[in-house]
Amino acid sequence: MTDITSATPTAQTPPLPVDAFTRREISILVVDDEPGIRNFLQRALSKQYGLVEAVDCVEAAEALRIRCRFDLLIVDVSLPGQSGLDWVARLHQAGERCDVIFITAYADLNATIGAIRAGATDFILKPFRVEQLLAAVKRCVANRAREREMAAFARTDPASTDPGAGDMIGTSPAIEEVRRVIARIAPTPASVLIEGETGSGKELVASAIHRASGRRGPLVAINCIAIAPELFESELFGHTKGAFTGAHQAREGLFIAAKGGTLFLDEISEMPVTMQAKLLRALETRRVRPVGADQEVPVDVRLLIASNRNLGEAVRKGTFREDLYFRLNVVSVKVPALRERTVDIPDLLDHFSRKLAQELGLSPHEFRPDEIERLQAHAWPGNVRELRNVVERTLLLGRLPLDSIGAAAPVADAEQAVIGFPAAWPLDEVEKHHTLRVLRGTQGNKSEAARRLGISRKTLERKLSTWPEARRPLNH
Q1: Burial state string for 250-269 with b = 16 or more CB within 10 A and e = fewer than 16
Q2: 405, 407, 413, 419: CA torsion to nearest 10
Q3: Is the dihedral angle over the CA atoms 269, 274, 279, 285 positive or is it negative?
C-alpha cells in the first residue's frame, strides 16, 4: 500500500487517461491545513491539470474562489476556524456548481452524512493511498468531460417536448435516425449498446434513453477508464466494512446506487476480463454480492453500455467475453461521427458560439461562409468535443484558429468529401492512414498528434507499435 506520507509524485503519479483538452481546462483547489499533504497534492496534480491552487483555511479558499472558477475542490473536513463541510454546504446552497472530494482523518457517521448532504462527490479517509485519491480525481474529471460532451448536443429549443429524442442539435438524416431509434427502444427494459467515436455524444444518448424510459430511479454513469482494475468489483457491487485494507466503512456500489433506474457503463471495453464474468453473472441473476458480504443483494437496474471500440472485434481478439457481448448487445444505437453529419456544423457553431460567449463574457463569433466551409471539410477526429474547443479558441483569439483544423484537403468526389478516403478501404486502413497523416502534419510530435486525434499519447503509441509504416521516416 502506498501511503501519502511516503509517496513521491514522480514515482507514483502516472498520466491520467483523460482527453488533453479537458485535462488542461480543469482547475482544482486543495484546502488542507497539513502542509505535507497540501504541497504534495499541488505538485502531483499541477503536472496534469491546468490550474491547481492549495491553501490552508476556508478564508483563503473563499478569497481564491471569488477570483477564480474551480471545477474540483479537495477539502479537509476539519479545518482551523470554519469547517470544510459548512463552507462547501453554503457554496452549494448558493448555487455554486463544482465537484467536491472530502478528506479527513476523523470519520464517523455524522461526518459521512454531513459530507453527503454538503454534496460530496467522494469521501476519503486519511492516511489514504495516492492511487485512491488520484482515482477519485479521475472520476471527477471524467464526469466533467462527459458533461461537456452532453452539452455539445444540448438542444437550443426549450419548448420541445419530444421525450428522449429531442436533445440533439441538427437535422441531418443521421441524427434523425438516432432520435427515431431512441423513441422506439427507450420504453423497453432491454440493454442497449451505444457505439460511437470519442466525443460524439454517447452519454447524451444514454441520458435521452433514460429520460424516455419512464424509470423512476436515477441515471448513474461511470467511465470504465477512470476505474483502477483492482477497484472495479468494489465500485460496481460495493463492499462491507473491513472487506479489504482501507475499507474503513461500508460503501454501496453503482448497481445499488442506480436501483430502479439506469446504469451507464462508458468505455466498457476497458473492463478487465475477470470483471466481465462477474458482470455477466449479475446481469443474469439480477443480484450482486458486495465485496466481503455473505449474501447477495437483488437489484433492479437497466444497463446501458458504450464503447468507442468495435466490441465484436474485441471478442475476436479475446479481450472481451463473447457471452457478455451477446448478453449486452440486445439492441444498439450508432452515434454518428461529426464528419458523417457535417450539415449540422452550422447549427452546432451557432449554439457553441452563443453558449461559450456567455460563459467567457465575450461577444459571439459570426462564422463566415468560407469559415464554415473550411470547418465542414475538416475530418474532426475529436468529433463534437473537438468542434466545441475550436469554437472556444475562436472566441478567445477573435479569429478562427486555422492551425487547429489544418488545410482543407481536395477530394475526388462527393462521397470522398465525407470520409476523405476511398469507400472500398476497410476502417482499420482508414484509421492507420489518417493517424499517420496527422503525425506527419505535426512533424512527428506525438503529443500534438494525440491532441488533434482526440486520444491519449499512450493510445497513439500503442497503435503506432502495431503499424510497420510508423517505423519508416515521416517523409516516406
Answers
A1: ebebbbbbbbebbbbbbbbb
A2: -30
A3: positive
Q: Is 289 left (phi over 0), alpha (psi -120 to 50) or beta?
A: beta
Q: Which domains, from first to last, does the chain contain?
A: 9-142 (3.40.50.2300), 152-336 (3.40.50.300), 413-476 (1.10.10.60)
Quote the pTM value.
0.52
Model pLDDT for residues 68-113, shown as the tens digit of each residue: 778 888 998 888 888 888 888 777 766 666 788 888 877 665 666 6
Per-residue pLDDT band for 348 (boundaries 50, 70, 90) equals very high
Cα dihedral sign, 315-458-194-206:
positive
SS3 368: coil
pLDDT digits (tens, 9 = 90+) for 440-470: 777 778 887 888 887 888 888 888 887 766 6
Three-state DSSP state, 263: strand
Say if residues 312 and 285 touch (Cβ distance below 8 Å): no
Q: Which amino acid is at 320?
A: F
29-80, pLDDT tens digit by residue? 999 988 888 888 888 888 777 788 899 898 888 888 777 778 888 998 888 8
φ and ψ at residue 125, rounded to 5 degrees: -90, 140
